[in-house]
Write a structure and sequence with these properties.
alpha/beta, globular, 223 residues, two-stranded antiparallel ribbon, 32% helix, four-stranded parallel beta sheet
């Protein structure tokens, strides 16, 4: 079965889904979805790419793997659907935005409005077994998402990469920092947020970089 994104990613990733690593990953996922509870729903796996075409990307937030609790993951890193309580990492993201920019903390954890402004909310691994963080790492997703990062890096238009935590920071060598901005800090998880995520200034820095390159700032307030 061919993956259909519905925008320019289809052309850019043409042939990627036919490669041996992805075919192996697909067979693994068929078994996983059949025999375990896996998040997100299979129809939501590629939501990050569906919501934000490559040509529209101005900033990338790189997560690890999806939330592994029921009703949380919906294919956008750190985001939960309307009505779902924000998990602790997202609460800390909102706290940092409030502290940096003075905007009220939002009533929703749905980050979809960011995607409409060119923010790609990409996890490095796009699926996870329920209750088992990291369970689908090393199964092939990283090869695909590295390719996505490489394609973004090849674009001439400057963009911002927000890399939080060791997993995301490990992707920094894929980014040409002569053209793009890579911002790094500890992960917003409660286990590490106080070691440097809080106070990192990334949301302000991202907007300053975009404006310096003739682009509009991102409204991080969620309305």
């Amino acid at each position: 079965m061919t993956v259909q994104i519905g925008n320019d990613w289809d052309t850019l990733l043409a042939g990627e889904f036919d490669k041996d690593y992805y075919q192996s990953l697909r067979r693994f996922l068929v078994t996983e979805y059949r025999t375990h509870t896996v998040y997100p729903d299979m129809h939501d796996i590629f939501n990050a790419l569906k919501h934000t075409a490559c040509a529209d990307v101005r900033a990338v937030i790189l997560g690890q793997d999806p939330y592994h609790g029921p009703g949380q993951a919906h294919g956008l890193c750190f985001s939960v659907r309307e009505g779902v309580p924000p998990p602790p990492s997202l609460v800390n993201i909102f706290k940092e935005i409030h502290d940096e920019l003075g905007v009220p903390e939002p009533r929703t954890g749905d980050l979809t409005p960011w995607t409409r402004q060119g923010v790609l909310l990409l996890n490095t691994v796009l699926t996870v077994r329920a209750g088992d963080a990291g369970s689908h790492r090393g199964c092939g997703w990283e090869t695909l998402t590295d390719r996505v990062i490489q394609l973004l890096n090849e674009r001439q238009e400057p963009m911002v990469f927000l890399l939080w935590g060791a997993n995301a920071i490990s992707k920094r060598p894929l980014i040409d920092e002569a053209r793009h901005l890579a911002l790094t800090s500890p992960h917003p998880s409660p286990l590490s947020a106080y070691r440097g995520f809080f106070g990192n200034g990334h949301f302000r820095a991202a907007n300053e970089f975009l404006q310096a390159h003739g682009q509009a700032p991102i409204d991080w307030s969620l309305g």
